[in-house]
Amino acid sequence: MRPPVPVPTLSRRAKLVLGAIAVLLVLFTVIGTLTNVYVDYLWFDETDYTEVFWTELQARALLFAVAGVATGGLTALSVHLAYRFRPTFRPMSLEQQNLERYRQSLEPRRGLVLTAVGVVLGLFAGFTAQSSWETWLTYRNSTDFGQTDPQFGLDLSFFVFDYPFYRLALAFGFAIVILALIGALLTHYVFGGLRLQTPGQKMTAAARVQISVLLGLFVALKAVAYWLDRYGLVYSDRGDVFTGASYTDVNALLVPKTILVFVAAVCAIAFFANIVVRNFLLPAAALVLLLISSLVIGVAYPAIVQQFVVKPSANEREAPYIERAIEMTRQAYNLDDIEYVDYAQETTGAEVDPEVALAELRDDTETIPNARLLDPNVLADTFTARQQIRNVYGFPEKLDIDRYTIDGETRDYVVAVRELNSAGLSENQSSWINRHTVYTHGNGFVAAPANEVVAGTEGGEPNFTTGDLPTRGEIVPEQSRVYYGELIQDGGADVYSVVGAPEGASPREFDLPEGGSDDRQINNTYDGEGGVSVGSFFRQLTFAIYYRERNFLLSSAVNEQSKVMYVRNPRDRVEKAAPFLEVDGDPYPAVIDGRINWILDGYTTSDSYPYAEQMELGEAAADALTGTGTTALPDDTFNYIRNSVKATVDAYDGTVTLYEWDKDDPVLQTYMKAFPGVVEPREKMSDELVDHVRYPEDLFKVQRDILTRYHVDDPVDFYNQSDRWQIPDDPTQDVQENQPPYYILAQRPGDSTASFQLTSALNAFQRENLSAFVSASSDPESYGEMQVLRLPGNTPFRGPQQVQNSFTTNNQVRPDLTLFESENSNAVFGNLLTLPIGDAGLLYVEPLYVEGTGESGFPLLQRVLVNFGDRIGYGNTLAEALDQVFGPGAGQVATDSDGQPEEGDTGAEGTPTETPETTTPPAPAPDGGGAATPEMDAAVADINAALSALADAQRNGDFAGQGQALERLQTAVEAYQSAQAAAQGGD
After folding, report:
1. In whole angstroms, what is the distance from residue 42 CA to residue 38 CA?
2. Strands (DSSP E) along 794-907, which ranges?
3. At what angle do helices 254-277 and 281-295 cross, to 10 degrees?
4. Do the beta carbons of residue 907 and residue 875 sit within 8 Å?
5. Crossing angle for the helix pair 12-47 and 537-547, nearest 10 degrees?
6. pTM of full prediction above 0.70
7. 1 falls in which pLDDT band (50, 70, 90)?
8. First CA to last CA across the chain, in angstroms?
9. Is 798 in contact with 783 (CB distance < 8 Å)?
10. SS3 600
11. CB 853 within 8 A of CB 883
């Protein structure tokens, strides 16, 4: 027999070095982990959400311990038993000789090896299990839905809360048995209990007993899995166009699954009986029976039924199951209570009766006056140019829309907060002292009515009714400093600030310029409740380790009164305070009770609602503007969603408050049991806060996606997809992405007053014609009520892309676009709004901006485009554009809030309009436009000169020069149009 190969040994010095390295690695890992946990705890303690911290930590620790001990312990026990009952004597064979060296290597270290195996597997299993802490908490605190599923008669809570936990436990059961079986087989093989190549008996009695028991447990778990598979049919995707149990699942798979449960149970009993019978033939035969049964009755038979029974008449066979899917999907996405209105059924879509239209315009006194001409997705640069004040301030890439009631009149406003823009700091301002202790906050609230520009100007500037520093105007907060916002980050990472100073110390934090001077400034010291105290040496050391920044220990700016502000993005704060919520990607600021608050929407979701269509959250909530000022939601799979929570984050002290918004949501009630006291009752919301809640965009985008398919009631029509809709692409963007929904203040058909609502147009499937218009109310009295205007299916109403094409190819618009698109400027189309006008039809309104191409260029409103039927209006004001569509006087009637024209009335966008003479609407210019004339060439030269002067003025920050250049531009454009009209008239 060959002598065993000796195991290489390490020198004492090498062992000491390796030991020291291992200790240091463990020490650094432990210190880093404990520091992260402690800093997290300090944040939760500061925000009064320690209940969340401890509950989540306890749930994670419990799952980690149970899964770790069960997996590591039982696997180690299986290995230990295999070793304990190893044979004392092993037959001599080449196989055993080869294994002898491994036995000699393991024998002296078997305790260490066994412990290492158990610990490693336990850690792996524990880390895997602890991530499912929400599954455990929802199972532990489940709340009944009060509704049973149509197939099994069980409350829906079983599928949403219990079934996922049973599947989780079953998966770990399988993993433990498989690992224990592998460990036992390897141990028996190495120590002679299992002999694959040795003549004679292949397995000892102890090995046979242990392996039989483990295989019996595995098959018993398989029986449990078959039983759960029966309930899993409610998530089946066998149906071609719907989710849930199909005809084949119910009639050809449900009973076979039950049969397989008993077959697997018999197979398990056979394996357990092998302990006594001592013959693997019986369990092997049972196992073959199980495999054949699963293939024949679990796979082949359902496939035959599906192919030869269902598919030839699927629309009829699947009809009752499609009805289930439609009903349950609507419930899952909260679409089971929608008002459907057959709209504009008598309108041909092309012909417009001016008299009827004017009558509707007079009756609808609130839609057109509130038509939004300021696009929050375009005007960020304009707000920056007019309201930035200093480079350290900034505005987000996408502004927000909210409504305020001023002097008894409710209007929608483009709103923004003048935040600290960490990315805008200059190189000299980016030292640690400046970045973290001087430039700590923004200042001010800015608002401009969304339906007007500055009266008397030709430049189309927003009318900032609230702005400047210190903040003045209509909506002035008592505390205007902003320490928590969307721009306080660096490359996506949170930027912390160190605030606070001893009494009597000089203020360090830059607050605002003094008297508008570029050289003098006012400083202040933060005195709010926000931030984590960092006065003690231990905490300074903690944050020095956490941020890897020695200045926490060395800088005089960190003192006994100092606080550290971190996790400052409002969305991040809410996600951290409520990890069980998905948070809408677009927080918006509002002045509530004298303070600037960020308002956010929280969603409870589930991926286990029976019969409901599964969706990818991030994909469903994406549109052409996602990522440009809004946060993309994660691509989690879900099939149930509710806007169950409204959250606020105080911009000054960072206070996070969660309010129960949907009291009927069982998922939220379950989490409220798990985290008692975390979510405040809805009654604690102030009236002013309730007045500013909006229907959330991401939820609306998910719902409109579902509506494109599930608005159909008839299961046969649903199966045939004969009345499917689709979301139109955004015609104002270069990318082919979904058109975003728009907030508007408008009067719904049938309503007597305007309401703040979120709206979207829907096209016919794979066509550009309009099929429907959906809106969701944001008014407190009717919040969440959804209305769908269904247009005649055989009427060619124009969709957004067709309207945009008609705008850009119009003979009045095309020359201006050519002029605006020059070396010094760009034409920028704003949001294409769809506005229902009484029962007459849908009016499209789109602003057109001109933006300078220089670094300091910004968009200014120049024109307004209108479409109704086949008529297009194009003017300097909304009133002028409406006159061209509906006839003289229509614009003044429509833009006046009481529906009656007055002498010298002002258009909706703030530019004075005169009552036009009674003439017919101007006819569009013929295609071609004729040859250029000397007058037209001179006008073009004047336009280019004006644009150049405008760009120079913008670069130099010369506001007066910009105004003069815009006046010159307007005069030159009018001269060009007059010359063009004269040339065409002479053709």
Report:
1. 6
2. 825-829, 833-837, 841-852, 859-868, 871-875
3. 170
4. no
5. 110
6. yes
7. very low
8. 113
9. no
10. strand
11. no
